[in-house]
């Protein structure tokens, strides 16, 4: 859905005293109905869900006081390291920080942008991930730790590149479009992208929504076994799922032999797909995370199988809250692109020319990003400096880490992974029920609080003689 720019009306009319807009048919809804009637095709866009969803902002930390003591920020350590893939792999990923860079394809992003992500991850001691379309030499050359995605499309799939990777991520689904395949519109299919994906240049590409050689959890177990044989049991095997039936998906992936589970909430981004998918399929990261933790705990494998969560991670507060709810690490995508300069106001005039405005993120599918990040246009891509872009993302990752440490110390924790649900309270009933933490001012998670307060009354009412009711 095209953005309504500041000061503009998608209806064409102006508000006057006495006129009242509909909450149901607001300006963007009306504009989309008119666009659909005019063009006869569903809206395709990038980015992620723009509706208001329950998220980590609905949680607060309970800093230490009398009942527990905080740590001094500059004198007492608060460690951040994490190891991913300890279950079966002989060479797990040793990360200095619990923040990784998510899979974003060469095709969706320019080659310099992919290089910048590799540089940033290497500088701060974490991993980055390939994406649909394969591995580029620039990305591998500048990434100390690189996760290779195996996707349903198999675009760019190369067994030699797979062996060069430090881990393999079997992608079952994506938070922005679980149950659906990806899209890369024709103006992003350059000569190089076409060659890597074995596709004709300039033709819209639609990725498959399921893997061609397996259809269920039994087949997934066989596929994971094949990947282990190819990599001599050295490389960790990740399984990534879009957040839907998270509890069952996680249990099945773990039973199939995954070392690491990646759960991507519906706030995650995408290069391009149907708007109706982005806004109406999947569940928020906030409720998917506790379901994944529950699944691992019931199998007795929480922490032995590591859990990575993505979808809407923006700040150190988001990172710390995800860790407190049971994640071992988080993964960022959209935020990394913003950090390197995507949708910079420096290019406002050019964003206006392509029908959007800096900060609205309605251009990812278009392939004409003036910042040179989400484009395959050589002239535009040449504007982007991968060294400077990598430094910006590295700085951003450092800030996320420092913020996470700050919150952990405030809660009296000497390691960020010591954060726990009892360090959190919720501001809304929704968030309390989803995150399974107390509503602010209560002592227990809301559902338990209700059980304690209401159940005795119900039982007492049930036991009273009928004549006295």
From TrEMBL:
GO terms for biological process: glutamate biosynthetic process. Residues 88-341 form the Glutamate synthase domain. The keyword Oxidoreductase applies. Coiled coil: none annotated. It comes from the Bacteria. It holds the Pfam family Glu_synthase. Keywords: Oxidoreductase. GO terms for molecular function: glutamate synthase activity. The keyword Oxidoreductase applies. Signal peptide: none annotated. InterPro entries: Aldolase_TIM, GltB, GltB_archl_type, Glu_synthdom. Belongs to the glutamate synthase family. This is Glutamate synthase domain 2. It comes from Gaiella occulta.
